[in-house]
Amino acid sequence: AIEENADMIGLSGLITPSLDEMVSVAAEMERREMKLPLLIGGATTSRVHTAVKIAPHYNGSVVHVLDASRSVAVVSSLMSDEQRAAFLDEVAAAYEEERARHNGRAARKTYLPLDAARANAFRCDWDAVPITKPNRLGVQVFDDYPLGELRAYIDWTPFFIAWELKGKYPRIFDDPAVGGEARVLYDDANRLLDRIVEEKLLRASGVVGLWPANSTGDDLELYADEARREVRAVLHTLRQQARKTPGRPNRALADFVAPKDSGVADYVGAFAVTAGHGVEALVRQFERDHDDYQALLVKALADRLAEAFAERLHERLRREFWGYAPDENLTGEALIAERYRGIRPAPGYPACPDHTEKITLWTLMDAEAATGIALTENLAMHPAASVCGLYLAHPEAAYFDVGRLGRDQVKDYARRKGMAVEAVERWLGPRLNYEPAAATAEAA
Length: 444
Known about the structure:
By secondary structure, the protein is α+β, with helices and mostly antiparallel strands. The chain has helices spanning about 15-30, 45-55, 70-80, 85-110, 115-120, 145-150, 155-160, 180-200, 280-290, 290-320, 330-335, 355-365, 365-370, 405-415, 420-425, 435-444; strands at about 10, 40, 60-65, 140-145, 205-215, 220-225, 230-235, 265-275, 375, 380, 385-390.
């Protein structure tokens, strides 16, 4: 940026580790006494995080940009001699308010010691829980999965949201404000989707695994076979520590798998799917033709196809591979509303925010060889149009937010994973309810 005499720097974060990188960049800009505006955007960022975690590290201007479409107005304000000062004053005041609100909420929230949170875990009568032995244990690979089959499982609502058109599909077409634009976009997307399916311009690949399993505390032991003597892998889960109202448990994903000492034989599944093979070549082709609109459509459709692939394989898992719901027959609307038994939580998301668990999944399923999905050094998936996660079948399994984590849980989690506490703190930085020692020392 210095060598190119840039006017400003923009950072975009797709996954949680990106947030720490942004703090590092801000601190480095401060160390070099830079004055360039720093723009923050991307899927994992927020105005609160920008105000609370990033802005304090840089005395220059830090501005959160909600999405790419807003960047034009922000950049115009920053480049304007007439508007810049007033714009930055407004941002600074808004971020000061955000910090005050955040600190107030943090002060009001109370957290339990890990032992107390575990004592308030979700519990059930395991003898009464219906558990089905999977029809097929082990790993199954699905290469070049038919895109035409996946098309029927696309959830179009997030597609429109990605284009700043808010409304639920198909009702969005009747919206007086955005209905017409939504219909044009939908028709364009489906014309391109016709080409993608007919000419096989993208390729979908996936892998599914099912193993005998039991929980041991907050961890999941996956076994090599039904003898359950050889532990094939251990998956680590995190537990909610915020104090709950009476009757509400402090949950961990491990709660939904039968404890080892219960004597109940349970099972756990995992998956990784992509619809991203071919995206980069197709995007380059459209960009060479100066058709940025079609290039953006390709990326958005690949994301939707990957999510559709995850939905379709989960349906087949319930009905065929695991077979605990063989008679399930849900409409597309019911599938989108998740009116089925079981969940598929993904590493990096609220119920299991630790991306490093992907490493275990990739080893278990030999996922890169099976699907071509590689993990970057910060454990993002490449191609980007990819989805992975666990399969849990407990009838009461539900998604939840782990929330903030105490120092005692982070230390315990690091011990269980065989990692340094500092490394765990880096991966879970936005989830900590305390300031880690390394960050405190750096600030000092």
